[in-house]
Structures are given as C-alpha cells and as structure tokens.
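dude i think i finally got it to work??
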Amino acid sequence: MTVATAPSFTYRHLPATDASRPPLLLLHGTGGDENDLIPLGQMISPGSAVVSPRGKVLENGMPRFFRRLAEGVFDEADVIRRANELADFVSEARERHGLAAPLAVGFSNGANIAAALLLLRPEALAGAVLIRAMMPLADAQKPNLAGKPILMLTGAMDPIIPEANAAELARRFEAAGASIDHEVLPAGHSLTQADIRLARDWVDKLRA
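look at this
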C-alpha cells in the first residue's frame, strides 16, 4: 500500500493481487477521504489494483471533488476544472503505477465527478460504477462513449437526487454510445448491501 501525493492529490494505491481484474479508481462522497471506499472496492472486485484520491475541495471541513452552491446545485465551472484536474491525475497515476485505464467506482459526490469525467474526459476511464449519481453538468458536449460500460445505481427514495435527474444522466450516457445498466433500488441515498451485490455481479460479468 502506498500513500502518496501527485498533482496535489493525496491518494492511496494498492497493487493488484489478481491481474485479471480491472484497476479501480475509488471516488468518495462528501466528507470521505482516500481510505473511505477501500473496503467497498475490495468487496466489488477483490484483487484489483486501487487508486483512491482524496477530494481537494473543502466544504465546512469536509473533502469533496468539486464545489457546490447549494444541495444539488453545482458550481459547473468548478466541476469542469476539477474533472480535468482529476483526469490528469489519473494519467499520472497510471504511468507511475503501470496501470490500464481504471474502472471508476464513485459514491454520491464521487459518482458525480466520475460522471463528469465520462462526459468531459472519457479517455480517462474504462467504465464506471456510479452509486447515487446525478447530472453534474446541465450542458456538456456529447462525448464518444461507444461501448464503454457504465452501471448506475439509483435510490428510489433518495431525498437528494430526483429519480428523473438520474434517468436523464443515464439517457445522456446511452445517447453517447455507452453500454449503460441503470438499476433503481428501493433505497435512499445511503449505500446498501444491494448496491454492493449488484456492483460485484456487474464487474464479474465484465470479466466473463
């Protein structure tokens, strides 16, 4: 395990113990850090190499990946800036650790920055598991996501993310050519065992 800093991101790196599994880029939710999603990543894809950065934006002392103006209202200029910064970090981390393009696993704010990466810098990711994601940008150029696998897990009772908002994000990915699976679960905003099971099964199918 490595704790390091690259382009001012503090992050953890865990080398692969199973070379057949995709490397994971773990992106935490508001208030998390580089350690937060390590257990989730290991449950979803045991043996994968892991790169887990800490968001650099602080909101009342809590790390995030980009600024927001209010609950569910994003500073879109900052989203664009931070997504490009994160894409550059992914490129440097790949070179440093000898990794293929990673599969992002993001929760909440982490899922939203992963969605922004897919829309703005799709070459940074091999695909993504987006848990409780919403539209990060009201208007973005349509990327080429041809065949890129994306799993979205939405909570039907999520008080933060309207189901219609998540559905619109899934439609945008599909229109860009992604291979999108969108599951709506009987859940709120919190991570559930169903999320873990569905994500693990989905990653296993990618390897089949």
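The chain has a mean pLDDT of 94.
im so relieved honestly
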